[in-house]
## 1
Amino acid sequence: MTGPLRRRIATAVPSVHLNTAEHTDQHSVRSAPRAPLREHVATSVRRYLGDLNGSDADNLYQIALRELEIPLFLEVLEHCDGNQSRAATMLGIHRATLRKKLREYGIA
C-alpha cells in the first residue's frame, strides 16, 4: 500500500509510540523515539507475504492475530509478574477474556 491510501490511514489512526516522554518508565530505554508498532507489524506482514512466493494464504487474519497475541500476552504477564488481573487491565480486556485466550493458546 503506497501513496494516498497509506497517508490517509496514517492520519486517521493515531500511531502508538511506547517510548514517549510522558510514557517513559523504568522499563523503557531512554533513547531516540522508535518507529510506531504499526510500522513493525507492516514490515512483518510484508515479509510474510513475500515469503509466500505467490501462494495464497488462508485465514491470514487468524494467523496474524495468534502470532501477535501470544507474545503480547506472555510479555505483559511477565511484566506484571504473572498477575492476570493486572495484565488484563494493562491490555484493556476483561480478566476472563485473558484467561480464555491463554487456555485457547495452551499457555494457561
Note: The chain is about 55% helix and 0% strand.
## 2
Amino acid sequence: MKKLIAVLFFSCFFYAGAQSINDYKYVVVDNQYEFQNEANEYRLNELMVFELKKYGFNAYRNSEILPADLNRGLCNSLKLNVYKSGWLSTELYAELVNCGGEVLFTTPSARSNTKDYRKDYFSTVRESFKSFEDLNYQYTGDDQYIAPTRLLTIQEEQQLKKAKEVKSKENKTVDVTAEEKAETTPDNLKEVSSALPEAIKMDYEDVSITGLSIKFDNSKDTFQLFKNGEVVGSGRKSAAGVYLITAESFTGLGFQDGNNFVIEFDQNGTTQRIVLAKI
C-alpha cells in the first residue's frame, strides 16, 4: 500500500512538472558549463542541443542567434543547467529551470568511467537525457507577446548619427529667415526655453566604463536601458519579480538589490554582472 501511495505521489508530481514544461517554447543551453575548460568542449553542448531536439524541444545554445520572440513580454524559455561530479568516474545530471529560478524537471544521474573524457561525457549525456522522452513534450503555450521596437545595430546607429550630423550642418547654412531676425525679447526667451525638451532623468546608472543606465516607467513594471544616452534595450518585470532584459548585445535578468540594480547575463559561458547605483 505504501509503495502504491508513493508511486501515485511521484506520478502526480511528474505530471504537474510535465504540464508546466509544455508552457515553455524554448530551451537555452549554455555554450560552456563550469566543468568545461572551453566553450563547447568535446562538442558536448552541441550534443545536448541535438538530444533535446530529438525529444521534441526547440533548443539553442546561448552563443547562437536566438529567436526574436524569446522572453519578449513574458518568459517563454527554460535554461538547461548541467552538473558534473566525480573524480574517478564521470557523473552527470541536468535541470530545466525557468526565468524565476524554479526547477521544473531534473534528470536522473548517469555515470561512466571509461577514463576517456569525450566518451564518458557523451555516454552520460545520452543516458541522462533519455528521461526527457518520458515528458512527451509538446508546446502548448500562448504565442502572443509584446513586440518591442527593433533595436538598431551598431552600423545602423552610426549611419543614423552621420545623417543627423549632415542634416545639422545643412541647417546651419540655411539663410536666416525674417522671422528668425525678429528682435529677441524676454517673452520670446521664455517661449523658447519652455519649448526645449528636458533631459531624461535616470533612475540607476553604472559609473564604470559600460555607460549603462535605466529609466523605469511610472508602474515600475518596465524600463528602458540606455548606453551613453542612447536607448539600447528594455526590461520587463516577470511574474517571479525579476526583470527580463533584451539588449543589443545580450539577453539577461535584472533585479533590485538594496539601493542598486543588478544586471546579469551570460557571455561565452561566464556570468557577467553589472551593478547600477541608484541616482
Note: The chain has two domains: 10-135, 149-155+194-279.
## 3
Amino acid sequence: MMMEEATASTSGSSEGILVVVERPLVVEDLVVPLVRVQSGGDGDGERDDASELVTRGDEDSEDRVAAEVSPWGVLVHEVDEGQPCLTCKDKCPGFSPHLWRKVCNNCKCPRESHDVYHEEFVNVRDRIGIKPDPSNQTSKEKTLQEGYSWVPPGLSSAKIEEYFSQLPNHKVPRLGTPGEKYRDRQLIVQLPKQDLALAYCKFLERECQRSFEDFVNARNEIALDIGYVREALEKTQECFKCGGVLPSGELAVIAPKFGELVAWHPACFVCAACQELLVDLTYCAKDGHLYCERHYAETLKPRCSACDELIFSGEYTKAMNKDWHSGHFCCWQCDESLTGQRYVLRDEHPYCVRCYEQVFANSCEECSKAIGIDSKDLSYKEKHWHEACFLCSKCRVSLVDKPFGSKAEKVYCASCYDAAFASRCDGCGEIFRAGTKKMEYKGHQWHDKCFCCCTCKNPIGTRSFIPRDNDIYCTTCYEEKFSTRCIKCNQIISSGGVTYRNEPWHRECFTCTNCSSSLAGQRFTSRDEKPYCAECFGELFAKRCTACSKPITGIGGTRFISFEDRNWHNDCFICAMCNNSLVGKGFITDGPEILCPECARQKLM
C-alpha cells in the first residue's frame, strides 16, 4: 500500500500523487467590444455597435462576380465544398463551409487545410485583375506542354528548367506533384480573393465599401506587381535579399517596382513576412521589402481572425492578440458572441463558459457533476473531485492537504485505511502508517528501521545484504559467521584458497614449515601434520645414502637398499671395486665398503 500526501501542483497527474488540475486560462475582464481605430475613407469614425455586417452569402453567383468587375477584373474559380481535409484525412467527410468562419463545419480545420483546387487553369493576372500583358505571360498550352501549372514567361525550355532547378523540389509546380498543390495553396493564401475584389467580400459594411475600393485601387497602383525572370544578367550583381553574388550571364528575378538594377536569386524572391516563394512572382512593395498581397494588406489594415477579411470599420474587437469583426468574436463551439463575456482558451480557441464546461470539464467522482472553471479540480489516478467532495469513503473527513490511501477505486483517510487494509511489518508486527517507508523482499516487508541484520541489529537500508534461511545478514556479519577461514591465519578466504587434508588455506599461507616458500602448485610432503617442501623435508627428515651422503627422497614410495643401520640409493648400491650394481645380488661388507663376491675374493686372496 502506498499512502500519499495530497499536494497542489500544476503538473499532470501521476500515480500516487494527488494534483490540482491546471485550470484553463479564463479571461475575467470583459472583452472590449469595439476598438475605435481610424481606418480612413468613408468607413472612418465611430459606428453603432448594432450596425449590421453586409453578408454576401449564397445569393452571390459567378454572374454577379462577373458583373461587378472591370473588363480585366478579378476572376477566381476555387472549388472547396466536399474536398478532403489534408490534416484529418478520412475523419472528415469533406469541406463544408462555416457560415462566416474560414473553417470546415465538419472538422473545424482551416479552409486552406483542405484540398481546395482551381476549377480552371489559373493565370495570375486574371486572379488579381491586372490587364493582360502578352510580353510577360505564357499561354496555357505552352505552360502545360512544359509539364508545369505555371512557368516564368518569356523563357526557353532550357531556362525554365534552370530556373526551377534553383527552387526547393517540393515547391516546383510540376504537374501531378506536391509542388502543383503547393502553388494552388499559395495562390489561395497569398492572394486571398476577398482582398482582391468587393464581389468576394461577405462581411464588409456598406459604409466601408468605398474605403475598400480606394484601398484596392491604391494598392494596385502603388504596390502590386508581377516580377519577371531575366535570362542573363549583363554584369555581376548582388542579390537584394541574401547579399550573395549573381554572376553575369546567370538568370535572376527582377521586380519592376524596385527598378531594373535590383535583382534576386530565384529562391530568394520571397515574402518578408511568411518567407514563402512569391507565387507566380506576384508581389507587393512596401518600405523596401517584398510582401505577398496578404501580408502587405496586414501591414495597413487589421484582418478578422475568423472570416479572414480585412477590417475597414473604425470599430472592431481585439482579443487574444488578434483582431476580429465585432460580431465574429464568438464561442468556438456554439458561435455565441463573447463580446463583454468571460471566455476560456482551449487549443488557442475561445469558448464560452457554458460550452467549455459541457465539452471539457471533468466529472466529479463523488457527486458526478461537472467541475466548473470556478472550482478547484483535484485529480488522482485519472479520477477527479471537487475540493469539497474529496472525502474519506468511510468517515467522510476531508482529504484535502492530508495523507490518504486508495483501495478498490475508493479513497480513505490514513486512519481508516490503516484500520481496514494496512499491511504489517514482518519485523515488529506493526502496521505501515501513511507516509512510512517500506522495504520489501521476496514477499516480506519491513519498516525501514526494522529491516536490520539479525546479528548486529543495524538497519540495512539500501546497502547490500545476504539472506540465509529466514534471516537477513549484512555483508560484514555474514562473512564473519559463514565465510571460510584460513587454518593458519584464521582470516576469511575471499578467493584463491588451497585445501589440504580438508582444511582451507590462503595460497600465501600454505608454505613450507621450514623455509616458508609457497607450496601452492609445488611438490611437498608432511611430517607431524606440517607441510614441508621436498628439499627441506629431505634435509631435515629423510634417510641418507651411505655412499653419497645425500637424502633418500622421492614421490610415491622410492626404492632404496637398507642393511643393518645403513641405507643406499638404488643407484649408489654398487661394488666399491668394480662399481657393478649389487641390487638384487649377494654382497660382502668390508668395513664401510660393500663388495661383490668376486671382488671380495680377490681382495681377501
Note: The domain at 560-604 is CATH 2.10.110.10 (Cysteine Rich Protein).
## 4
Amino acid sequence: MTLRNMAIQLRKCCNHPYLFDEEMDATGNVVTGDHLIQAAGKLVVMDAMLKQLLERGHKVLIFSQMTRVLDILEDYLVHRQIQYCRLDGSTHFTERQRSMDTFNDPTGGLQVFLLSTRAGGLGINLTGADTVILYDSDWNPHQDNQAQDRCHRIGQTKDVVVYRLITENSFENRMLQRANAKRTLERVVLSRGEFSSASGEKAPTHTSLTMEELEGLLQDDIQIRQEATGGIAPDELTLLCDRPQVIDAFVKKTTNVPRETKGYYVVDTAASRIMGMDSFT
C-alpha cells in the first residue's frame, strides 16, 4: 500500500466504517437506520448536536473532504427527515445558485447545507448560516478556513460558531496537531518577514508526509490508545449548543463555558466574529 493510500484509509477509519463496507439488505440496497449513526463516533456527536441546534433555530453548514462521506450524511439526514441542500464538485452552477438562494432565504425552512470543503470554498456565499460543522478536516488549515468563511461574508449579521469533529487519540488527531504546529510556525515566520533564504530566493516548504513521520504517528496512536478518555459528555454538548452562553463566554469574556475540557477545546481565530471549537469523539 502506498503512503498516500495508507493515509486515506486511516482517515476513512476516523470518519465512518461504511466507507469500507456498507450494510446491504437481501435485494442489494444499502440499509439505513439508527445503526448508521451508532457505527461512527463522529455521527453520534453530530446527531446530538444537530438535534439541539435545529431546535434552537440555527442554520448549519456541514463540510467534508470526501463526497462518499457526504453520501452517508445524506442518508443520515433522510433517515432523520431533515431537509437539506447539497453542493459538491459535480453540482451544476444553476443548481448551486438555486440551493444558495433557498438556504439563505430567512423565510424558508431549510436549515442544513452539505458541502465538500474544496467545492464549497470558492464563490459561495451562505450568510444565512450561523453554524459550521467540519465533519473532517483538510491537512491544509487554509482550506478549512476558506470553507468556513462562506458564512462569514459581507452581509453576515450573526455571530458564527465553528465546530470541528475529531476522533480522539487517532491518526487524524495527530495530523491536525502537526498541521496546526506548522500554521503557528508560518505565522511567526510571516510576522518577522523571514520567508526568504539568504540568497533572496523563497524558502522551500515541506508539507508532504514522509513514511517515517507516518510510522511515528501510528506508533503514537498505539502508545496513547490505553489512555483514551471517551468522547464529549452530554452536558458539555448541551452547553456548547447554547449560543447565548457561548457568545458571552468568548466575546464578553465570561466564565460560563470552559475553554478546554476532556471533550473539547476552543481554538482562537483571527476573525472577531468567528469562534472555533474542536470536539473529540
Note: Residues 171-192 form the longest helix (22 residues).
